[in-house]
Predict the structure.
Amino acid sequence: MIYDIIKFLNFEDIAHIIEEIQVTKNNKNLSFYIKLKRSSHDCLDCGSSELTTHDYRMKSIRHSISTASDCHIIYKARRYKCKVCRNVFYELNPFSNKGDQTSTYTILSVLEELRKHTSTFTSVAQHYNLTKQTVINIFDDYVDCKRKRLPEIISIDEFYTAKISSTKYVCLIFDFLKKEIVEVYPTRHFYYLSNRFTEFSEEERLNVKAVIIDMWDSYKTIAKYYLKNAIVAVDSFHVIKHLNEAIIKIRLIVMNKYNKKTNKLESNDMYYYMLKKFHYFFVKNFEDIYSGDIKIPKIHAKWRKDEILKYLLSIDDNLRYAYRLKEKYREFNLTADYDTCEEEFVMLINEFLDSHLIEFREFGRLLTRWKTEIKNSFKRIGGRRLSNGAIEGVNSRIKTIIKNANGYSNFFRLRNKIMFSINKNEPIKNKN
């Protein structure tokens, strides 16, 4: 019976020092009264082993092993008295750290659950029958993630969080090779980042060989000024994003020429209907679009994707021209090699600059301004192209952390939660 209780409490590793266990249950409250066997101790002051049992003190320690019941260990803590120096002290407590009213087992279980990016303080509190504030206190007491050393290749990106910071975007520094977060900053503003990068040693900064960014000028300036040995590469996702935004504007201009402003889409002009319903054909990779029969309710028919695309491009010469030039750049983006792409890249830039469409001329100017950084993105290290693909996946998990918690009011707690949940080996702080 006693062993079953010990097993239930997850105390198998200290079973040999437990002398007594009694259990009481009052409504939903479980109490385990535990007394330990007398063991050999030395005086903490003088080191003498000549000790007597002075008295016992009752300590209540929360031990969350059941979601259905509020569980406590009522620990009969023995106090020793040294015969030599008369010092009085407690026996070693195997249940909790000094000053904690929650068991070490519960604390470690809570922290392990909080490593999941889907967990929240509320969900963990409910799971372990604790209050939300208790879980927050455990997290704040035991988690203090330190910034990492600057790696050879870093990615810099941001995520949106107007609720947390006075600025709209929080900045993320990411290790491209190890796929772990180096640091999280509360803003992407230039002067703040500039001050933070001075905190890295010159040795660390000179060790950086490449920086991957989006098209935010502050990142480029920071990299050029503080990371003097690093090339700067623009993530291709953001280039394609600007290209897609340009063709969306062109599609909308063409589409709205046929807008009859009816209440129902199916009652509108056929050109308007098709351009609106199949808008994704202009920004999605064609090979990723469903290859089976696609319903077109307006004409009660089913077409294949190649038939739909052919129809869409027959509507307007500008749209057909824009789509083909966009696809030309997309193909270049997928296949270009750093050592051989210069001539083709220059030709493409000129095609956009010479376009009769203002949206593409603006994109051409963007390519011109970021030409070196875009070309650098075609470099490969360890077989991997320089991109922020990995950090975009991290951003998705960060959004889940914020969304599940319905926001964070404390930035530093959010920072610790992000690093603790996403980095694989973030240590737990030793309080003692």
